[in-house]
Each structure stands twice: as structure tokens, then as C-alpha cells.
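Quick illustration, no need to memorize.
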Amino acid sequence: MKRVFLFVLDSCGCGEMPDAAKFGDYGVNTLKSCSTSDKLHIPNLLSYGLGNIDNVDYLPGTDAPKGAVCRLQERSMGKDTTIGHWEIAGIVSPDPLPTYPNGFPEEILKPFREATGRGVLANGPWSGTEVIDKYGEEHMKTGDLIVYTSADSVFQIAAHEDIVPPEQLYEYCRIARKLLVGKHGVGRVIARPFIGNPTDGFKRTSNRHDFSLEPPAETMLDAIKGAGLDMLAVGKIFDIFAGRGTTEHVYTKGNTDGMNKTMEYAARDFHGLCFINLVDFDMLYGHRRNIDGYAAALTEFDGWFKDFMEKMGEDDIVMITADHGCDPAYTATTDHTREYVPLLIAGKKVKPVNLGTRLGFCDIAATITELLGVDYKTPGNSFAKEIV
């Protein structure tokens, strides 16, 4: 194959994994929750077999699917963006990244305050919108940074763009990233700029930026780039892999922008992988528990996907998957949920087979590297010969 397009519909899980309860998740199913909304209209994804995936009986199946499908069970001990993407790219993480349900210890905050010259507000697990509503006014008065976390391995810094310009906030994140190593090596340090005022309310902007922990081993991206092929990253892929393994990258301002930029790459004659993250599913709808918004975003992607497939050539493969769940109907928390993820594979040379349930997101990395003729060792098992 010449080109592979790998889409991560960020957080679009398809049902709780057997160990979900260990992660505090019970009865979760992101895709099923979206199926209850009258905003969901995805005939194109269904025509490729999305409803034929194991246990996705809440969506209509088809007797003549146009693509190959399967359900993937995560091997890694996590339900976050970093570990999910690392496993998709070939690395299994047997140990979870550190989390801070009681906030960050003084051994982290003291050097952070000294290096930035600013105080710290919040310091605990918070919803990203609630924390700026709670501390936004105090932040504007004092200049102190809003530092918070979630159930994920993240150190997040929120600041008003008029008080701390985004570039300055990014520098504070770089300071935190250098401090957060070893036993405190969180998956991501995230800049969370916002605007607004106490009277009319605050709103996060699209100037978010992630500063990720560097992957602990070679990924599929490293192998593809090392083989002299193109490794194109769309959205936050570049940040998730700490800038490693890409030959070209472009940031996006949401799903629509991400799809537009992917279409631009599809018009180019490249050889390798285009790896895309569409973040709105997770950031705007999953965490905010907005079922209709999530369903409408899937509907938008479905309509765009039809046009995208018309641009594909004989030697192109398209894969659509997710990195974890974030069930918009689950009210116990606003965090990610431990779920299986769907995988849909499309292309003119793809056989319409159902691969059942497979152990490991890393099977994607094994398959893509085999399809591209790239030597790469991963715990995953390739299914390239079964689909082409």
C-alpha cells in the first residue's frame, strides 16, 4: 500500500471492557449512548460495517459491508489519551501513568511557583469548565495560575489570555514538563487558555496546547519516518508523541478544521501514514456529557467521510478507531471511560471481513507497518493479510 489514513475519533469507545470496574466505570458505552440521540445519522459508516462489530447490536448491521471491522481491547493499564495513542502506535504500557486525585504535592508546586513567579489556585481534580468558573475571577485579580488535574495523568494550567498570553502560558507548561519526570512523569502537561469575564462567564479557547511525555520506546511513527516514508500528523498527534516520529505536522482548531486539513493531505501524492486526531468528540462533548452534541459530531464526520472516500486511490487504506471512551451519558464522573474501541477499515482493496474482538490497540501499528513494508517490532499482531 502507498498511503494509510488513520483517524482517531477521540474517545469514541464502544462498550465497557472486562476490567472497567477497576477503573471506576460501570455500564459505560460511548457509542451506544450516542445511538439514543435523534442527532445521529451515520449511513456511510454503517455501510462499511460499523453496526457489525461485536456487541454493537444497538446500531443496524448490514449483510453486505463495504469494509473490514473489529473491536479492540486495550492491553495497557490506562484510559487516557497518551496511553491509548501510544498503544495504537505499538507500545503497551503495563503500568499506569501517575495520577493525583488529591492534587499535586508541594515537591512539584514549590519549584513550579519559584520558576514561574506566580502562585497556584485550585490544585485538585476538576472539570475544565467548572474550574475556570470557580477560580477565573481570582486568577484575573492575582495573576495566580489555575493548576488542576483529572482522573487522567495530566497537569493542566488554565490562564486568561489577557492576563497570561498563550505563548507565556506555553512557557509555563514547558517549565512544568521539565519538573514532571521520574515518579511524577505525567502523560501530558496541558495549556488551557480562556477568555471572558466574571459577569458574562468564561470560555476556553482553541489555543490549547499539549506537552507530552516522550514515548518510552520506538513507535510506529519512528519506524515509518526511519524508513524514509512520510509521517504526517494532523491535530494533537504531534504533541501526543512529543514531536517525535513525524515528517510534517499541522495543528487544528476542532473537528471541521481537522477534516479540512486531512482532505488537503489527501490531495497530495505522499507515501506513508497520515495520522489524524479529531478532538472535539472528547473535549467538547464527551467530558461535557453532551449526548446530542457528540451524536451530531459523528453525523458531521459521516457526511464528510463519504466525500473523503471518493478521493481514495487503489493503494490507499483508511482506518477509523478511538483511543478510549468518554461516555456522554455517564454521570458518575466527567472523566474518560474504560472501553473497547471500534476499528473500521476501508479501501478499494479491502476485503469485507469481520475480525471479531482482538487483544491490543497495538494490532493497528503491526498492521499499518506491514501494509507500508516497514520493519517494526511491537507486541501487536498484524491482520494485514486478512483484510487485503
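The chain has 13 helices and 14 strands.
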